Input
Amino acid sequence: MKAGLGTAAFGTSISQNDAFEVLDTYVAMGGKIIDTANNYAFWAGHGGESESVIGRWLAGVDRGSVEIHTKIGGLPLDGNDISNPEGLSKTTIESAITASLERLGTDYLDVLYCHIDDLKTPLLETRSALTSYVEKGVVRKLGISNYTLERLEELLVLIEQEKLAPLSFAQYRHSVIKPVTLDYDFGVQLCLTPEIRSLLKEVHPNVTLVAYSPLLDGAFEHGGKLPDAYDTHENERYVTGLRAEADMIMMSPSALVLRHIANDGIIPLCMSGKVKRIKENFALVKKLK
Output
C-alpha cells in the first residue's frame, strides 16, 4: 500500500482501544508505514502518548511486519510551545532516541525523522550523531520534515561531502490543492514547494516524499469546508469536481485524494480513530504497490 497511517492523536483524543482497531485494520488492508513522533500529542497531553500506544500494540504483532517512522526534535521544552523545541543536538538525539525506543518497546526504528530544523545546532553535529545510530543498526533509515529548500540543499551537500548516512525520506505538508500562497504561514509546518520537489525528484530521486495533512481535516468530503488557508475559487471548483467524480465511482472524495497523491509518487499519511473511515479512505490505495 502506498499510504501511511498517521497516529498523532493515538492515546489522547483517540483511545487505545480505537487505536488498536485502526492499526489492525490498516495492516489487514496491506499497510506497513506507521507514522508517529515523540511529541505526539503534546497539545492534548504531554507528548509520547502515541508512541506508547503503538508500543503496546507492537507487543502483540510481528515487529517485522510494519515500519515504524518516528520523529524527534520537536518536543516542546516547556510542554506546550513547539516554537521552543528540544532541538537536535547530539545529547538531545541520544536521550530522545532512547526514550522513543522505550515507549515503542523495540530495539530499532525503521525510519527516524528530524521533525523540524534546529538552526542552533550545526548540521554536522546533528547528522554525525544520527549517522552513528544508523551504523549501529538502531536506526535503519533517516528522514527530515519541514526543512526549507536552502537548508535541504545544504544538508544534502554535507551528507555527500562528509560521507554521512543518506537521507531517505522527506516529509512536508501537501495535498491535491494549493494554499492561498505557497509561503502561507502554517507555523513550523512547511509546504512541499515545486523547488523542493524538483530537488528531491530530479537531483536526489532516492529520497521518498511523504505528505502529511493531505485530507485537510475532512475538507474534501461532502459538507466539508475548505480552511481559510485554502479558500480560493480555483480550489472550490476542484473540490466540486472531485466530489462528483467520487460519487460516480461510489467512493469517498478523501479516497480519491489519497490515490491522486500516491499516483503522483508521494506517500500520503491519513489518520482517523474510526475503522469505517480508515477502510473508506484507504480503499483506492490498498492495492497500489
